Amino acid sequence: MTLAPQQSIGGKVTAGIIFAGFVFSLAANLPGHMSFDSIIELVEGRTGAYAGWHPPATSWLLGVLDTILPGTALFVVLDTLLIYGCFWLLMRRASRPAWAAAALVLVVAVTPQYLIYPGIVWKDVLFSATGLAGFAAIACAANAWSRLVIRYAWLGVALVLLVFASLVRQNGILLLLGGVIAFGWIAMRQENINLRQTAVRSFYALLAGVVILTAANVMLGMRLTKEFGGARQFRLLQAYDIIAALAAKPDLVLDKLDKQDTALAQEMRTDGVRLYTPQRNDPLAGSQPLQAALTAVPPPLLRAQWISLILHHPVLYLSSRADMFGWVLFTPRIDKCLPFTVGVQGPQDELDQVNMDPRWDDRDVWLQTYGNSFRGTPVFQHGLFALLSMVAAWVLLRRRRRPVDIAIGMMLLSALVYTASFFAISIACDYRYLYVLDLAAVLGWFYLALDWHWPEAWLRARLAGQDEGRA
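The structure corresponding to this sequence follows.
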């Protein structure tokens, strides 16, 4: 008995499973699931007026796609195509895809991250899809480095995708930086250039990305109807950190606010501490006096108090931050961290503006039940995916057998750095914030599995031994 050649069969099976996962996800989700944020962004996309609480790029894209086909179906198709397309692009780079890669895709395709999440109209899903697709494009460029036109076509696609990811999430620029480093590293290896030449090329690539990013932000910012949300969110972060410190140390002296804004200091010590939770900042909105005091405080004064906290009480600040970050990374109670959403839910006035009704049908009930069955399992555990990402990044960046190793290794490293950034900026533990980490870990191990031929070699040897025994 002989084993059939694996080169074409393994690739076809892997491609078939990728396509089936893509189709099944679309069938389960179209026309998409929407929460409060999604509906607001669709309204902004249709009106072309951005309130600024969220980066307007998602609203803009929703508006563009909505003009082609009203609703969110094209947005869901785009996200799903990018997420599953990363598998396909990497598979095409392998000369003989192993069966292990097909098995891995088959397993992950039935997890909420690949079955449900691509259908949720969230900027976090769009960010993850565009960011990882950008690194997949760099991998394609690395594989075709000697073909100049194809190389620069893929690099251009990568730049656009990574810049768009940076537009969707403010700290998404960390993926753009990782992509630039990957580009420079691959160029240095492929062309045997020195470190100075590598730095020059990387600088120009980063400059191009920053120019496009700045121009896009300026153009989108011209349609803002309120202050950009980044500034408001930064003030919210400062207040959250100060209240967290007071919750841990009630007798903490606020050297700035106690002297210059006693009303806010008092509200933070009373309602702020009473409502504080490391899980999210939302409960603080339950105190109208606290919110009024936060609105009235001069931004420079609040910022000065926050900086004073960090400088004079660094251990207290870091311990509070570690507590918050622990909820984001480890989600000890996933039910507190919104693992996913299905259906269409949101304010009726905004739903009326986009001519939509709330939706909670039998399919949504099934998806909710199915997704809930993974709660409390390793599937909803960013910490596990962080560990998988670290191991895969170490393997790839240490071996560097092919230039593609560098692209995928830097993708994993960038996702980990992005995750680490939430230590400083987290104000809620929603699972979606680190969705990119889960996808990066899976994609990294899929790439490794493409070359994982030892089960096939073992089976081939066993079959060969049986043939010899019969002979």
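The CA atoms of residues 42 and 76 lie 13 Å apart.
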